[in-house]
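Anyone? Bumping this.
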Amino acid sequence: KAGVTQTPRYLIKTRGQQVTLSCSPISGHRSVSWYQQTPGQGLQFLFEYFSETQRNKGNFPGRFSGRQFSNSRSEMNVSTLELGDSALYLCASSFQGRETQYFGPGTRLLVL
Amino acid sequence: GIQVEQSPPDLILQEGANSTLRCNFSDSVNNLQWFHQNPWGQLINLFYIPSGTKQNGRLSATTVATERYSLLYISSSQTTDSGVYFCAVERFGETSYDKVIFGPGTSLSVIP
């Protein structure tokens, strides 16, 4: 069974631009969660989607948004990028809840 | 919001040694998880343990929810155990955004 895939793996953007990251979960998994990891703030939970609905949300501004498609693939979008958005963005999939999550390799975003 | 602390922040072990990592949290939680991030950034979900004890091979975890701490035990450590160990707590039904909070992590280095 293929693991969680994230695209792109690396991305360089400039301030003010927007970016869309993609996550393909393990086949059959319906829950996708997104996390941000930075040296300063550590790991932070962004949001979780289940069956195309946002089920949980972390404490991030509205510039961070996401969605999930009927095939469970998920995208997250960050608009009006700031330098502080430079981070490793991880997604994880699970069958239903977040008890057993499988993580993708992450997308490393650099904002210049 | 909930504060999560982990100790020790850094740990160096000789291969074969045992270790105990601790996670303290400041308020009651509904869920607690342990994660391992290897030196290449891959994150793995180790335990979902809101209370009680679980074991998986050389790793085991115990959460004493009433006393607001969890312990992760690593026995007969191997070099592949190196990396950062995170605990994360969650409160259900919160209207605030402090729903999933990660600790700062314990960085473990296992030396041959």
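Late reply, but here is one note on the structure posted above: The first strand of chain B starts at residue 4 and ends at 7.
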